[in-house]
Amino acid sequence: MFYLSSVPITPVENPIPFIDKLFHFLLYIPVPILFFRFLRTWISDFIFIGIVLAVLYAVSDEVHQYFVPTRMMSFWDGVFDCLGIIAGVLLYRVFKEV
Length: 98
Known about the structure:
- This protein is an all-alpha fold.
- The protein has one domain (19-97).
- Helices cover 70% and strands 0% of the residues.
- The chain has 5 helices and no strands.
- The protein has helices at residues 2-6, 19-28, 30-39, 46-66, 75-97.
């Protein structure tokens, strides 16, 4: 994801409005799950810390895009990143119980 956000883009007319928000949402679903899997062997409160790390990564990714030519930092991209994180946490909770 870091590499994808560091690639300059060419502005084009988007045929599907808000498709980029869907991509932000979908790309961030696995992020908290990966943090959980990494942290659960060392930390008892791995869910809270995993969520914090996932949100910090999303924020740092948006700030990173500010410094990439032709890219921009977007509040709404960050919101959809966080919505994807929430969906990932909910999926983890549902499937962890199964």
